Amino acid sequence: MQLATRAVVTAALAALVAVAGYLGGLPVTVLAALLALAFAVGWPSLANLPFRPGSAAVIAIGGVGGVLAVHSVQDQPYLRYLPVVFATSILLAFVNELLRRGGRERMVESVAGTVTGTLLAVAVAGWVAIGRTPGGEPIVVVGALALAVGSAVVALPLASWRGALVTTAAATAAGVLATLLLPDIDLLAGLVLGAAVGVLVSSLHVLFDALESLARKLPSVAAVVLPVTVTGILVYVVGRVLVG
Length: 244
Hints:
- The chain crosses the membrane at residues 56-73, 79-99, 111-130, 136-156, 163-182, 188-208, 220-243.
- Keywords: Membrane, Transmembrane, Transmembrane helix.
- The structure is a single chain.
- This protein is mostly helical.
- The protein has one domain (3-242).
- Helices cover 78% and strands 0% of the residues.
- The protein is globular, with a radius of gyration of 18 Å.
- The termini are far apart.
- The mean pLDDT is 88.
């Protein structure tokens, strides 16, 4: 999948998160669970893990389990059961290795890659948590719109450092503009959130977009979903700091 195509798909997914955040509640949870599943399918191929079905199952359980754990909590802190879900997923990563046959080659790499993938999938629960926080719905919309714009701009044919600056500036501008259109959100929150999302998108672009495996379908699925999942926990942290 070409860079431009991946950028458009990521931007579209981020726009869906913005719409779900505007609707609130259940739509955000359902979309977050679907994103975790899509990431789980593609990550083992992107990371070149040796036992891909087992790793995908562990990541899916962790990601979807984290989303459901956050959704089921009735009061703050909404993330209080997320460490339990992640710790259980780590144990499942070792069970996954016990189920392997054929000598269990690259076992350390397999465990590390599965645990890393689970952590990235679990991060999507941040969208659900901030969406349920009082005053957090506009934060979801602002963060998702900044991500959509940043993901689209990152495909421009610019030098690495110049592209990072343009991407960060565009995401920051989108965050600021979104705060002007939405009630109950401070301009500073949009500025900080947009800048943080822009830096994240630029960093992920540098880390992953040169991989040759992205020419294949499944690794590309993980690559387009990854910015959306990771931004979830970033938006939650920034939102809690700025909104409370």
